[in-house]
Amino acid sequence: MNQLSHLDADGRARMVDVGNKPVTSRTATATGRLLTRSDVIALVRADDLPKADVLATARIAGISGAKRTSELIPLCHAIALSSVSVSFDLTEDWILISATARTSGQTGVEMEALTAVAIAGLTLHDMVKAVDPAATLSDVRLETKTGGTRGNWTRTGTTGTREEPTGIPVRAGSAAVIVSSTAAAAGTREDTTGPHIARWLTEHGYDVDAVSVVSDASIGEELQRVLATGPSVLLTTGGTGVSPSDRTPEATLAVIDRELPGIAEAIRARGLLATPTAALSRAIAGTAGGTVIVNLPGSVGGVRDGLAVLDGLLDHVVAQVRAEGSHG
Description:
11 strands; 328 residues; single chain; alpha/beta
């Protein structure tokens, strides 16, 4: 696109007509950072600021902001949001704000995700300004979008490099494995689930690119990185429970085009035969372009149950997705 979509032929501002666009599932994820002092971060962690419930308040503000985007930005369409999620990662120097917006409609949700980050960040600034008036909200940016006629787009590199949304070619017979485990990533616990999944994939005829082990907070970034390599299959393990640090389902929802709920439900049902805690799994399965993604639990037993469900099913799903892609 070589011209601004919100200008008409005479250069006047206009609202884009999306009436003829198809209704598709769309997602967008944005991030931003609030830079502040380490002692302020400690106060936020302990919820010990004069204005209490800092993160909870900022989260609600971000969600409310996303819902009112069309009122704040003049040429945005009012859309029905399926969901908005806002999360925070705290380091010693800054708070990373992440927001993901989802809808099924004729226009995207990039601005809703960006607005959620901006409003959540401004709320954080309001909450900490009494102790750090120099706090700075920065780097508010779109990280990824899916759906729509222009396809998927993911920010690449660390310097803000932008790429046009092109279809990522999927390599037939290739697979990748991501382990979401903060302890394993830190080297304080040995991971056995990743190698087990890799062996299973190899035995079923897939060439496994790698088994990557990342912290729970990095699962979204790793999913995007691995998807950019075009694997036919991407299996994750870990981060599917109800702990505040478990983020694999949210990260997966941010990158898939379509859910495959039957697969996730079948894996949960299989796990329930062994333990009632399998009902707590929030695992997701779906497709991102031509890649089939399935979340597996983080335990060896849960992985075995999940792979048992995929045995005989995964190849069929991959074949269907590949056939669909070959027909455009």
